[in-house]
Amino acid sequence: MLRVDKSGYYGDYGGRFVPETLMPALMELETAFNKCWKDRKFRAELDSLLRDYSGRPTPLYHAQNLSSRWGAQVFLKREDLNHTGAHKINNTLGQALLAKYLGKKRIIAETGAGQHGTATAAACALMGLRCVVYMGKIDAERQHPNLLRMRMLGAEVIEIDQGTGTLKEATTAAIQDWVTNVRNTHYIIGSTVGPHPFPEIVRKFQSVIGRETKKQIKNQAGRLPDYIVACVGGGSNSIGIFDAFLKDTDVHLIGVESAGEGLSSGKHAATLKKGSPGVLHGSLSYLLQDRDGQILLTETVSAGLDYPGVGPVHSFLKDQQRVKYNTVTDREAVAAFGELCRFEGIIPALESSFALAHARKISRKANRKTIVIVNLSGRGDKDLESISHYEKNRR
Amino acid sequence: MRKIEDKFVELKSSGRKALIPYLTCGFPSHGRFVDCAKLLEDCGADMIEIGIPHSDPMADGPTIKRTSHQALSKGLTTDSAFSLMEKVAARTSIPLIVMCYINTVMKPGVRKFASRCSAAGISGIIIPDLTFEERHRFLECFKNAEIDVIFLTAPTTPVNRVREIAAASSGYLYLVSITGITGARKSLPGSTETFIRKAKAVSPIPVCVGFGISNEATARQMGGLADGIIVGSALLNRIENANSRREAFRGVSSLMKELRKGLDR
Known about the structure:
heterodimer, A: alpha/beta, four-stranded parallel sheet, 14 strands, B: alpha/beta, TIM Barrel, 50% helix
């Protein structure tokens, strides 16, 4: 049901809206990716890296304490147990291999929460590639541990002190670097956003999450789940886990955006809920914009969800009504974060806590037999300061 | 209707190259923007590009980013941009070309945007993030409104693709001088000259070069081969750095004189 057409569209969404300078590189990338994805040797190399370097398959964990508190059977797909602490490495290992295939020696990336930047830095260190990461200044402050990790791994981190100093500005800066250095540089985009073929590349590299989950839940529960819940910023972890279940129409797929301080406050990042179609960062998708098409500011405690755009594949799945997109406030997410820490001994990423908070709502209304899988996309060591800062401000 | 094509015929018969300055609409203020546009015509501009500011200008460097954000923060909207352009059209007689990002065009609807352009007296449009591949739903609307769509080509564009893009383009073909974003540069690489020659060989319409041209030397280097040059950031820098209206106008005229000199020899 999910196919990207020749021009890079999922239904009405996607495409390529970039300066002409990048077009030849995008076409070259598309050809190279299609070839590599079908190439047994490439896939075997990637699989062995995912297994031996990153630690896949990641566990699907039956969280019994949460289950008895919340009512339904809650399973966590433990992407937080990946090397570098999030699902991002699935994509960066794949794209770094692709860069080697393309003969590009320099890698650039944008990062919000710093998880994608860290995963890119690690993949580059492993494969001997030069790595430059763009990060908004506000994000560099609120996700400081990741800034240090990237530098430790040998990446050059450039802080962007423009606009809101978050993921949007970092992405623009990365695209502009790519326009300037496209001949020797590959851009490892971190989410299922950007011009074609990036959304498709990221979707394919992240689809390993859903393939594993499907096998694991069949083994553990003997059936498919009733719900799969994942947070949506750009939408890479969510499409990663949804992808294998798109045809299983009995499985409710739910994407969760940040409602920030509340949808009516105007301070949120609920792109699919509150946005309208338009072009940002190279593709046509839902985005938060005013009546003139100027991009609106977003605000949420979670750096990884703080983005006014979303992957075109999600816009398509929203219109098709195959995936439902809901929102959770910062406050609800922080509460769910606390519950997972105290009752399961797992510190989740703030981003993943939005999915958890929504899973909690579903579980409360469901019966004991209902199976809810949450994609625990990352771990939360990076967020400890943000959380205490958030709680201090609320007091 | 002032046609870009007619302007090039006129230039060719007098053996001159086109000087196309760029202004950010509404910068540094609504009134001064209109006055600057008039001044540019008086200083020998053959056409004027007018940029409608966008919050996230992907192809633009620091200068145009700054001027755009300043204009937006002073409340410029698409509506007020069109009324300013109408004022410019009323006070000048050279072709005016809109430069704006695709989302600005799509938000009100392509057809509506195109008819607003033509109602405002605009002759052509440049959309830096409209790729040749995405042209279909846009070209016809602008063609119906008698607006030339000017496509961009870059040093990375293979020559066969330059040929295709030039065939789809009307008015002129916009050559991006370097791989990069807009912004004044002191010099441009020799490879740009090779690129211009290649593009000229396959383009049925005039070829103009932009990005980085900032002074007499770069104007002479590019103008020697191309049919015209586009100058944005260097001009905006003069306006931005001036302490008064008079100083801004003096800065603009002296740069225009310098560029004209480089171009006309």
